[in-house]
Design a protein that fits this description.
Blueprint: H1 2-11, E1 13-18, H2 22-33, E2 38-41, H3 47-57, E3 61-65, H4 73-83, E4 88-93, H5 98-107, E5 111-114, H6 119-130, H7 138-148, H8 166-176, H9 181-188, H10 192-206, H11 211-220, H12 236-241
Parallel strand pairs: 1-2, 1-3, 3-4, 4-5
Helix pairs in contact: 3-4, 5-7, 8-10, 9-10
């Protein structure tokens, strides 16, 4: 029986949850623990304790409240990216407004979940994020895409020096503008097959699996080549069409 339990635990998703207070954290942990697919990890109430736990327990997913005191959940998400890079983060939001949604993804979140949504969807959100996907509803995703289309935010969209070749960076710039593979091929004077090959290499180098993740990566990483998306709403549509109502499904390269 002990052996079966050990095997069962290996198959369960290890999750750390930290809400804005100790009491709400315990309520959240208890609620998620009722789902057999999750192995919940005891979460301290302080950011320092959470980071120490992440290093030792190595959960697959951390559910972090944006309202976590004292420095706020967004700052903790940034620290998690450094301290436990293999842990994927879902940020709990009190409201699904543009500013916190964008700030969550810029901090390094892999998903956002608003408290106004049904609790049953949180379990689906965690599992999608654990499987390497991005979670946001269509409204939240549109906030991100619209933000990328604003010239005033273009200074924030960067790629790390030397990570991508010049031509790969050109392709990412086109993806950030929302161009399709055919449109990228026409602009860069390449074949669509070559564009697909570039995208596969870009995905591999950045450790992502979709166009949306490429754009989010560019939005929140490093200094280097600047990507300046067009200010037109038209540029948002091709990328938005590549997602579904809930962006928890990898986008197909096409």
């Amino acid at each position: 029986m002990a052996h079966l339990t050990a095997v069962s635990n290996q198959l369960r998703t290890r999750v750390l949850a930290a809400d804005s207070t100790s009491m709400t954290t315990q309520l959240l942990v208890d609620a998620l623990a009722r789902d057999a697919q999750y192995q919940m990890i005891h979460s301290p109430s302080s950011p320092t304790g959470i980071l120490d736990t992440l290093k030792t327990e190595k959960p697959q997913v951390a559910v972090i409240s944006a309202e976590l005191e004292p420095s706020g959940g967004f700052e903790l998400v940034r620290q998690i990216r450094t301290a436990s890079p293999n842990t994927r983060v879902v940020v709990l939001l009190d409201s699904s407004e543009q500013t916190p949604v964008i700030e969550a993804f810029r901090a390094g979140a892999h998903g956002v979940f608003c408290r106004t949504e049904p609790f049953r969807l949180l379990a689906k959100c965690i599992q999608c994020v654990a499987n390497g996907q991005i979670w946001a509803n269509s409204r939240e995703l549109h906030f991100v895409l619209e933000a990328l289309a604003q010239p005033r935010l273009s200074h924030a969209v960067n790629l790390k020096d030397g990570l991508l070749s010049a031509r790969e960076t050109d392709v990412v710039m086109c993806v950030a503008e929302g161009l399709s593979n055919r449109e990228i091929a026409q602009r860069l004077k390449l074949t669509e097959h070559t564009v697909k090959n570039y995208l596969f290499r870009i995905f591999d180098k950045l450790g992502v699996s979709s166009r949306v993740e490429v754009v989010l990566y560019a939005l929140r990483n490093g200094n280097g080549t600047q990507i300046v998306p067009t200010a037109s709403r038209k540029a948002v549509r091709p990328l938005a069409r590549a997602t579904k109502a809930v962006a928890g499904i990898p986008v197909t390269i096409r």
